[in-house]
Design goal:
Helix content of chain A: 25-40%
Number of domains of chain A: 2
Radius of gyration of chain A: 22 Å
Number of strands of chain A: 17
Strand order of the largest sheet of chain A: 2-9-8-7-6-5-4-3
Low-confidence stretches of chain A: none
Number of helices of chain A: 12
Shape of chain A: elongated
Structural class of chain A: alpha/beta
Oligomer: homodimer
CATH architecture of the largest domain in chain A: Alpha-Beta Barrel
Largest interface: A-B, 61 and 61 residues
CATH superfamily of the largest domain in chain A: Alanine racemase
Strand content of chain A: 15-25%
Chain lengths: 374, 374
């Protein structure tokens, strides 16, 4: 079937682009001498995860315990749950480990380390380190780092597996030089934390870093053992805007249909709105020239952007396409298919339960499920 | 079970508030002398729809054909699909009607009217009128209105059911007076369009208007036959901010757990981020005093806002809670449950496959499914 026969909106994944992206990142990891532990929160798909771990050691990162269960059901065992664990999730984490997952959980708090110790069930734990993002994590030189390590190490049910950090601030980088500097902060913070943990006499086998920008521009990851980029499997307009990929790398698009013309306003409406595209406005940060609205409008066959056309506004099921030039109403009558490139692939994909897979053309070759929710 | 035993994040629906909201809107419709055709795109839930049509004529509005199928499966027949139909959706629309739905579709285009006529299958159609929102619809005095009506009326497979309009601009209203004026524009536009269609000798049994703000503040709906508010079932911070409801009317909240403290930054992290809360920032438009960030933080038991606390930033699975005053870290240790009121209920709810239903307390009394996707 051709994508143009699909009900719209539909989420289209070009596996040719996906394969290019995952091969390139696998090669990056090899060059940098670290394991690649892809963050599967972007695709939440077993089929994508299997491509992403091909040629790698086989471990993945997830953002929810539901993902952990799902990927285990699909045969992936080595799973890092990368969001700080809460007490109410320990039973489920233990149950997933009990079903055969080599599950690692994460904490940055002494209180939580005590709760993990008190929980009694076996847990493998990484300590989360803040390398400048100021989201999760403790700074590598903080006294809490050692207190958490000691608390965990003293518990017979716990194995301290190492440290992890995420340079979320790399998304504010705008050039390779800046992102290479942030990658070095990320590496140095994780390595410093690992050294301090090891100085307690503990093993610290995993030193985990990573974001797509830092994985792309890191010059050296000495001391790190693995990296965890995520969005590189699909890329998106934000990653393009900050120079991490080219627009031709973006593997994900939303197929939409023109449902109305408003020639007086130089607007056409499509059937992809806030739920189909998400309300993510990441590219707003990139200023007037980089701002892609709620997505760029592309030819449905070539996936080449139609110059100037973007989705300027959305309501729940309507997208409002405009341009500074007159819109090509004649060439795009009501009923015309279009493809929209997303601001932020992770968030757009979350509106769908499956990918319609193509392979460099418009022929649907497969349908890959996703694991949404919690 | 108490909600505090649920895995988090979870979507909590207080049916006591919901029942108050649906009763009040049913009473509004009765006072105004019109049918209430609730827009079920907000809840996408058969259980909610059944409460909303209680005491009303039984018809509903939907925003996707998947919703139409779902509600038909749950015994609701009279369904208005309120988004402009596209040629690629006609087969599905006909098939849903063939399964017993009294389905009405909508168009605002001569081309599309021709496609509906040419489709051959039986279709009931409303013409979409623009009353100032400049989204879908043609203006009531436009020549296209008559051309669409004539095109449809000439087709043996089509019944022209009437006209519909939606005053989306009511969301820009800030006081009852302004919203009453917009409600009058909405009413007058629909009635004017209906008169012109009737002047062609056509029946025009349905004259459909509505949004939650205009339904709330309309003074007179003479000539309209029905109204289609949607978000009133749950309300949200945006509706509160523009004065359409009180904060005590908001029936929907996201249950989250504190997963980290950053006392130096006066920040705590919760496990509800961009997917659990959505990236909707509707309240940003309300200015500094009305801006609720990505949601207001509430006591998990009373659902009363904790003064000053809001979710200031989100990443995929992290929410960053801050306040201008020092956060109550001691009172909210890691592991504490919180409830977050959403900016925009329709968009937040879309991240979940079900509601955990409570009835004025924290006891989970039911689980109601949702119909997501397309």
């Amino acid at each position: 079937m051709d994508i143009r026969q699909l009900p719209t909106p539909a989420l289209i994944l070009d596996q040719r682009r996906l394969r290019t992206n995952v091969r390139a990142m696998t090669e990056r990891a090899r060059t940098l001498g670290v394991n690649l532990r892809p963050h599967c929160k972007t695709a939440k798909s077993a089929a994508v995860a299997k491509l992403a771990i091909e040629g790698n050691f086989g471990g993945i990162t997830v953002s929810t315990l539901r993902e952990a269960e799902y990927f285990l059901d699909h045969g992936i065992r080595d799973i890092l749950y990368g969001v700080g664990i809460a007490p109410n999730k320990l039973d489920l984490a233990a149950s997933i480990a009990g079903k055969g997952a080599d599950l690692k959980i994460v904490t940055d708090s002494v209180t939580m380390a005590q709760a993990i110790a008190a929980h009694g069930a076996p847990h493998k734990v990484l300590i989360e380190v803040d390398c400048g993002d100021a989201r999760g994590g403790i700074t590598p030189d903080s006294p809490e780092l050692l207190e958490i390590a000691r608390t965990l190490a003293a518990a017979p049910n716990v194995v301290v597996m190492g440290v992890m950090t995420h340079a979320g601030q790399s998304y504010d980088g705008r050039n390779p030089e800046a992102m290479a500097r942030i990658a070095e902060q990320e590496r140095a913070s994780a390595v410093r934390a690992a050294e301090r943990v090891r100085a307690l006499g503990l093993e610290c086998p995993i030193v985990s870093v990573g974001s797509t920008p830092t994985a792309t521009f890191a010059r050296d990851l000495s001391g790190a053992t693995e990296m965890r980029p995520g969005v590189y499997v699909f890329y998106d307009l934000y990653q393009t805007g900050i120079g991490v990929c080219r627009i031709e790398n973006i593997a994900l698009s939303v197929l939409a249909t023109v449902i109305a013309h408003r020639p007086k306003d130089n607007v056409m409406l499509i059937d992809a709105g806030a739920l189909a595209l998400s309300k993510d406005r990441s590219t707003e940060k990139l200023g007037r020239n980089g701002d892609c609205g709620f997505g760029l409008v592309c030819d449905p066959v070539t996936l080449a952007p139609i110059p100037g056309l973007k989705v300027a506004a959305v309501s729940q099921e309507h997208g409002r396409v405009t341009s500074e030039e007159p819109l090509p109403f004649g060439r795009l009558p009501v009923g015309s298919p279009l493809r929209i490139l997303p601001n932020h692939a992770c968030i757009t994909a979350a509106g769908y339960d499956a990918y319609q897979v193509v392979d460099g053309s418009t022929e649907v070759v497969d349908r890959w499920g996703r694991c949404n929710g919690w």
